[in-house]
Write a structure and sequence with these properties.
Blueprint lengths: L1 E5 L4 E8 L4 E4 L5 E3 L55 H8 L5 H17 L3 H16 L8 H15 L6 H5 L7 H19 L11 H11 L3 H14 L8 H14 L7 H8 L3 H11 L3 H4 L7 H5 L5
Antiparallel strand pairs: 1-2, 2-3, 3-4
Length: 312
Amino acid sequence: MGDAFCSDCKKHTEVVCDHSAGDTVCSECGLVLESHSIDETSEWRIFANESGDNDPVRVGGPTNPLLTDGGLSTVIAKPNGASGDFLSTSLGRWQNRGSNPDRGLILAFKTIATMSDRLGLVATIKDRANEIYKKVEDQKSSRGRNQDALLAACLYIACRQEDKPRTVKEICSVANGATKKEIGRAKEYIVKQLGLEAGQSVEMGTIHAGDFMRRFCSNLGMSNHTVKAATEAVKTSEQFDIRRSPISIAAAVIYIITQLSDDKKPLRDISLATGVAEGTIRNSYKDLYPHVSKIIPAWYANEEDLKNLSSP
């Protein structure tokens, strides 16, 4: 029972909702005030936190604008309690034979989602990688190329564009067997194709050593005190012309900071946590050493501590 204005009674009257027919009927004169109404409330009770994002208000999967049908196609499932192979039945066979133009895209998006989850990436990066792959796929020029390398390269480019870069070695670790060389070639190919489509060079964002610092420090289990010092040191190091990759500089700064702390980290552990070879860390350390007095924060280490720092 509810209250609504009835145009026949010319006043607010009580109404009855017939949920089976979707009609709203005046209880006094019987006039149907609204027909075929849609109930937009929840279909079942839930006890989740209201602030959560997993409230199943309505059934159905999320839409995907990158797919032809918006991702809302119907799938004929195997009936509950049915025995035997459902695809051997007529409905299953016909659906299996039907050509789905988005089948390849759906599989690619699932692979990208799996890689994103394994790397702990946010949804915006996954969505950007899906968009990049869709643009490349629309050009119909990726046939014969390593699919795993293409998907990994899309994820690498998406991380760069969203200012959350990952190293090629990190991407390679979840790329289903694709090598760093294959991912590098795929990246160059994608950048070239997107550039041809847009008529201009593709902007992937600049990588800074500080982009990797907190994640590398977390992998090593460093304290907040040393993480803060490493973050300040790597930011100061950008003022000097050190011709090393940002990842190598980040690894070398971590090595210096840990050598000045009570919790010294072996070079091997730093190499494993950062993905930088031990020899590369040593060479980067040699380039940083002449500027170490200006790079290391004064509150973290004094001149005496820096003098005791081993020379390269």
